[in-house]
Structures are given as structure tokens and as C-alpha cells.
Amino acid sequence: MTTARASRTLPHPARDEIRLEGVLHALSDPMRLRIVRELAADGDELSCSQFVLPVTKSTTTHHFRVLRESGVIRQIYRGTAKMNGLRRDDLDALFPGLLDALLGAAARQSARLG
């Protein structure tokens, strides 16, 4: 692998390294939960630029890093775009029903609060 290519590879935890407390921490922030809800609704990969969040670019980058490092999302480069995908298979295998329960609760809260 060339040095340029290696520098564009982002670290992710292996499935067996994903911890429940890390996932819950990552999803406890409203912006990160919003990102995960958008990824779940889309069902595919989205580039970072497709998210419109009311925070600075550096804060957005931080939120994506927390989600990646906790094992909630996978990020890969495709050309110059950083693509984001929900690690649903890994999360469902480790914590059956957790992601759907959290997404459902978030949707109900959003509807309740308007």
C-alpha cells in the first residue's frame, strides 16, 4: 500500500472491540444521534457533505470521529469524499434490538418535541 493511500485509511474498531458504553456515549449527543438517524433512514452511505448540521465544520468532524471510534459508523474515502455508513450488522449482532430501539425512541421524542 502506498503512503498516500495508507494515510487515507481511517481506524475502526473490530466488531469484538465495540463496547456498549462507547456506543451509548456516542449516541447520547443530539448531533451524533441526528447523523445516525439520517444514515439509518437513507440505508446507504452518505458523504460528510450531505449532512447539514447547525455546528462548525470542526465540530462536525469531531462528531463523525466519535461515531467511528465507537464502532457506530464506518468511514471510507472514495476519491476525495469521505463516505459514512452505519455499522448496523455489527451493532445488531452485538446488541440485538438496541439500534432499532434507540432509533424508535429518538423518532418518538422528535415527534413529541416537534
From TrEMBL:
<feature type="domain" description="HTH arsR-type">
    <location>
        <begin position="12"/>
        <end position="106"/>
    </location>
</feature>
<dbReference type="GO" id="GO:0003700">
    <property type="term" value="F:DNA-binding transcription factor activity"/>
</dbReference>
<dbReference type="InterPro" id="IPR036390">
    <property type="entry name" value="WH_DNA-bd_sf"/>
</dbReference>
<dbReference type="InterPro" id="IPR011991">
    <property type="entry name" value="ArsR-like_HTH"/>
</dbReference>
<dbReference type="InterPro" id="IPR051081">
    <property type="entry name" value="HTH_MetalResp_TranReg"/>
</dbReference>
<keyword id="KW-0238">DNA-binding</keyword>
<dbReference type="GO" id="GO:0003677">
    <property type="term" value="F:DNA binding"/>
</dbReference>
<dbReference type="Pfam" id="PF12840">
    <property type="entry name" value="HTH_20"/>
</dbReference>
<keyword id="KW-0804">Transcription</keyword>
<protein>
    <submittedName>
        <fullName>Transcription regulator ArsR</fullName>
    </submittedName>
</protein>
<dbReference type="InterPro" id="IPR001845">
    <property type="entry name" value="HTH_ArsR_DNA-bd_dom"/>
</dbReference>
<dbReference type="InterPro" id="IPR036388">
    <property type="entry name" value="WH-like_DNA-bd_sf"/>
</dbReference>
<keyword id="KW-0805">Transcription regulation</keyword>
